[in-house]
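Milestone M4 deliverable, item 7.
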Amino acid sequence: MKAMSKFWTALVVGVAVMAATIPSWAGPLTTITPAQFAAWTAGGVAAPPIVSTFDFLSLGTDGDVSSVVFFGANEATGLFVYVYQITHYAGSSELNINGMSFDLLGPVILNPSLINPALPPTFAFQVSGTGNVALNDATTYPLASPSPGSVSFTIPTLPPGENTLLFGFFSPLPPTTVVADLRDTDRHTSPLVYTPSPEPSVGIMFGLGLLGIPIFGALRRRFTK
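Output delivered:
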C-alpha cells in the first residue's frame, strides 16, 4: 500500500509541475469524427458508465449525465479519456440547460498533438453525430492550492427532448467521482460524474476493469444509435 501511495505521489508531483506552467484555458471544443473517437478509446473501458440524474426545482426528473472513462490508445496512449453526455428529458419543466461544471482533482492535458492541426489548440473535444446539440466552448483552471481546479462546458441551448454530442478531455490520472453543477436555475438534485484524481476510487481501480469488454460493447451501441 505504501508503494502504491509513493507511486501516486510521484505522479501527482510531476503532472502538477506541468500544470503549474499552464494558464487558465478557454476555447471552442474541437469536433472529431466517430472514427477518431474510436481510435482514441480503443484501449477499452477504464471506469464503466455512470448515468446519474439531475432535477431542478420542479416536479419530476429533468435529465441525466452519462460519464465513462477509457484507457487511451493511438495518439492518446498513456492517458485516460474522459467522456460525457448530457440528456434533457422530454417533458421537463425547465426550458433550457446551458452548461455544466465540476471540480478537477487532478490536471487535464492540453496537448495540441491530439487535436486537428487545422483548428485552434484546445484541451476538449466533441464527437460529431453522437447527439443533437453541439457545445460552444470549454474552460479549465489549473490546480491551485488549497482550491481544486475546475472545468466548465457551455451549451448554446439544450431544450427538453435533446442531448449533447459526446464530449470530453484527456488526463494522466485515473478517475474518482464528484458532483457536477448543471447550469440554468437552482438545483434540487445534481449528478455524479467522473473526474481525474490522484486518489482513484478503490472500486474503480480493483475489479471494475474486468467488466470492460461487455460494458464497452454496450456503450458503443448506445452512443452509435
